[in-house]
Structures
1.
Amino acid sequence: MRKIVSLTSYGERLEKTLPLALKSIFAMTEFSPDVVLLYLAEADYERLDKNMLIEYSKVSIRIVDDLKSFKKYLSLADREFDDDIIFIADDDVEYGKDTWLTLRNLFNNSRLGNAIFSSCIAAFDSTYNRSVPSFKNRAYKNFLFWSGFGVLVPPRVMRLEDSVLRDGYALLEDGGLNDDVFLSAYCLKNGIECVNAAQLQTVLDFDGNK
């Protein structure tokens, strides 16, 4: 099976954090993706430094409708990748070298037939209007949501319809829940378990600082 990376980027992140995120992805131990899908709105493609495509030859640009952060999940709605492992990544994260190994080992050793494997999971507090870290406390299981910070999605798991992503984007535009929470609700509704690893990455600011 192939290994697919799926992410998006926009605005200042194209210059300030995306190059660092890609560098860390390609530096992960024992990880050689077959293709890195970078979903961009047309305006962001015009802004992209094309020299980056020379440095990272496995990056494949997909110009799509601007679904904001939901663009990184479009690979899950593309039947071409149904039989592949998809690694959902963020463009403002520097991934630790052991991220892929940890998630792969969780996947290989899991007996769960319908699960995704996340490098960062958080939990809602009782007010449902903010999140708090909960990397190990399973008491919050019903309130856990997964994060696009780094998620291994096995073949044939959580394959979406395009309309699901567009519904989520509509909620985002209306000031509703963000993409991570929306997709977590999808997992909960469809019986997909979110398996948690340790926090394996560092979030970058717009100047590329940790």
2.
Amino acid sequence: MTAGRAVAFTLVLLSLACVPGATPAEKAVETLAVREKALNARDLDLYMTTIAPGYGGSATGPAAIRARASRLFEGIDAIRYSTDERSVYEEPDGRVRVIQRFVMELEREGVRRNLAGREEIFLTPLDGRMLIVDGL
């Protein structure tokens, strides 16, 4: 995919996430699609657009998430990340909880390492979008 197409694709995904009629669950799924694209492209700035400023997960906030993702992206040559078996729940407090299976292949100097598991990610509404607030 060319850089121009990648930018256009990202803009389409972000615009869909901001569609007024979209449900919180639909917006959350779009945010996770942007996250997947960012991981596969090793695009730190795009990845960070999916993280809420008030992130409070296992790290200590967005700065820690950025540092961890930066180390990952710099330490490998390629990422192939995908998800399936996704369940999406709209919580009473306005957040969305997503439970999904993931497979991530990391490649460095021709050596591949496969990771797989389940992840539970929480997203919260902010400025018409759903951003990741916990679970990474």
3.
Amino acid sequence: MNGKGNLGSSTIDVETWMTLDRLLAFKAAADAGGPGPASRGIQAQEDKIRRKIKELSRGFGRPLCESNGSGWKLTFSGNRLRTAVEELSASLACFKSYCDEHQEVSIGAGDRLMQWFFIPRLKQIRPDLTDYTFKLFNLGSAEVVSKVENFTLDFGLIREQDRPRRLGFLKLKHHLNYALFIQKSTDPEQRDVEVILANHPLALVQKYTDEFCDQAKEKGINLQIRLLCSTFPQARRAVLEGYAAILPTSAFTPAELQDIRQIELPASMQSFQKNDGHITLIWNKRIEKMRVDFPKLIKLFEKALVKA
């Protein structure tokens, strides 16, 4: 394209119709799944979004979206424009970050990885990034990958097996290890791990319950599960209320372990390690060209997360 667009029957300068307002309206519709969802039910707003997308389609001379019985979707050209607008938005955000006195770095991961893997290692790079604010997001792997790909997240922490090949990555040296935790006051006899599992009220993260119960039954242990949690931080809190729980070994500080007993799990009952796999730091390779500080950030994360 030579900087001209065909709007109706007249040829006009590209900036007359390719405005940032129209491009962002198109991106909002693409992200939401249509002008309707993007307008949140406000008809006047939906009409404006539809008009702006129509003006872009006429300007480019190609349909950007189509509606049929299955709903609203982007055409091939629409998907290409969406990628271009995502990169434009990311570039503008990078420039704003450059202009700001304090820059930001966004990282997405599951709460377990964030609390007990990333945050404890962040202190190693803080002295090199005193002007930066870190923004942490509790996200599942699929959402981390999606946000990294569309430039709304700088970095993500996911399992190696969940990493798309197209993304930049660092394979991390560490993975989480797990143990059984119980308050010393509720276990004065310092019972064996099998005895505790079979007799003490147990808090487990629901995601892992079935597999762990199967492994316990193979050893003839009938677990006394009395609390099913949706997250590991919930299970950690349960330990303070008298339950036993299986948690990452870094769940409690050395000072807290004065009152809490950490017990190694039998090798045959360590399903959590098997499910975790190795952790990988991911980022969008294209942002390295947009953001001048990105190579520095990658090296610092390598120092803190890989070489530590």
4.
Amino acid sequence: MRRTLFLGFGILFLGAAGAPVALDRIELAPGTDTRVLGQAFLPCEVTVRAANRSARTVAVDLNDSQVKTKSGLWTTLEAEGGKGVCTEATMGLAARSDTKVSACTLESPCTQERRYKFKLTYDGNIAWAYYPSANGWTTDTDLDLGDIGRHFRGF
């Protein structure tokens, strides 16, 4: 028995004559795990965690923070997921505060490797924190920035 998965968008392939052919469904062989296929098209929810152990109030500006996929360009989280992409636009962390958490829904699937660049602010100063690093890639959905106050030592 074959199962047919209908997609909400068309996929274009080139036919034998070189003309584009639109497909609106994919036929799966018996026993195919549709969860794997679904992950390729579903949006990805990531959780951002941050703490502040410093003596100053700092913030993570999630709307202006950025994400990049291996094959893409830097784009803001808001542009990647739309208005209200994160449960909090700005995560304000008081001095010596506990960890705060915000969930963000991105349009690209969780299986894509990404690099994040988070905008941190303190008293008009800006610092950028990369996750997982300035040149690393991740498919993690739980992004722990650790103590973000460390980025403002010496200010």
